[in-house]
């Protein structure tokens, strides 16, 4: 209830901050980008994760506004890191897209406007969509994603494997990247059946010419197995948790 009142009060927008989790090349563990993950910098309760407030944001219908603002601020930040050389010219910024934002009337024009005003090429921006963000109006949403691809943007199917109809979405979505959900790496390499399942998922993705990002990498054996199986990129606590911009800069400067 408290969360809801605070969300309604509009103060929330200014208290949302952007955290960044590094994404690494599986081959050499160099940083190739980041996923922006929002946090609520609460005046009395400290840093709150999305799990605490995301449902209320959705109920109140604020998600389009919030995703749009976070995306814009993250693009500005990422463009600065790119210009300073902290991030490579082909580094990719990933943002999560809610259903409300994907269906918002101004989504396309806002992204198009920012790409022309912010010094960041479309190919450096990746939209992560989940099945749940797609269920409400799949045709409209996938048409939108196709349009965004014309600006050069990348599209990833996020949390792949945990939904009810992942394969159907894969078939119809204009995605070029698959993010394998962390539940599929949790028990590797110890669990042999899980290893085979992970291998099969990566083989399938590769045969569809999709880039594979495995998330939730917490141990070095997990990372080396994913690399051996042909994953392109890795993300997880082994390398870094989602970091404040300051900590992300420290991570980049101290990483190899
Ligand atoms: O960072 P964390 O593990 O707490 O994120 C929890 C969930 O919240 C993840 O599923 C992530 O996709 C989602 N999330 C985090 N930041 C954003 C955001 O800015 N927009 C949307 N739509 N989802 C987000
Ligand atoms: O749903 P999505 O994949 O966007 O959510 C990413 C979430 O996963 C973030 O909340 C982030 O904090 C969390 N996360 C990132 N790396 C790891 C990891 O190695 N282990 C676990 N358990 N969670 C992770
Ligand atoms: Mn994600
Ligand atoms: Na995910």
From TrEMBL:
Keyword Phosphoprotein: yes
Keyword entries, A-Z: Phosphoprotein
Domain EAL: 1-256
Entry superkingdom: Bacteria
Keyword field contains Protein biosynthesis: no
The name this protein goes by in its record: Bifunctional diguanylate cyclase/phosphodiesterase
Species of origin: Methylophilus glucosoxydans
Organism ancestry: Bacteria, Pseudomonadati, Pseudomonadota, Betaproteobacteria, Nitrosomonadales
Residues represented out of the complete protein: 314 to 569 of 584
């Amino acid at each position: 209830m408290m969360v809801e009142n605070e969300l309604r009060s509009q103060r929330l927008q200014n208290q949302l901050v952007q955290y960044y989790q590094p994404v690494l090349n599986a081959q050499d563990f160099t940083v190739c980008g980041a996923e922006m993950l929002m946090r609520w910098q609460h005046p009395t309760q400290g840093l709150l994760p999305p799990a605490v407030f995301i449902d209320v944001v959705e109920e109140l219908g604020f998600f389009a506004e919030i995703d749009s603002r976070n995306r814009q601020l993250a693009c500005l930040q990422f463009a600065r890191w790119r210009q300073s050389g902290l991030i490579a010219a082909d580094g990719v910024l990933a943002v999560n897209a809610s259903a409300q934002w994907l269906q918002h009337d101004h989504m396309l024009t806002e992204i198009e406007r920012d790409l022309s005003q912010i010094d960041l090429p479309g190919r450096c921006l990746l939209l992560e969509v989940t099945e749940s963000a797609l269920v409400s109006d799949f045709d409209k949403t996938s048409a939108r994603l196709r349009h965004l691809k014309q600006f050069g943007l990348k599209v990833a199917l996020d949390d792949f494997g945990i939904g009810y109809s992942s394969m159907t979405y894969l078939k119809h979505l204009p995605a070029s990247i698959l993010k394998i959900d962390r539940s599929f790496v949790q028990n590797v390499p110890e669990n042999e059946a899980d290893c085979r399942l992970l291998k099969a998922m990566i083989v399938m993705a590769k045969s569809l010419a999709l880039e594979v990002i495995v998330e939730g990498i917490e141990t070095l054996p997990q990372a080396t197995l994913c690399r051996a199986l042909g994953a392109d990129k890795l993300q997880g606590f082994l390398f870094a948790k989602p970091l404040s911009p300051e900590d992300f800069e420290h991570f980049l400067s101290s990483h190899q």
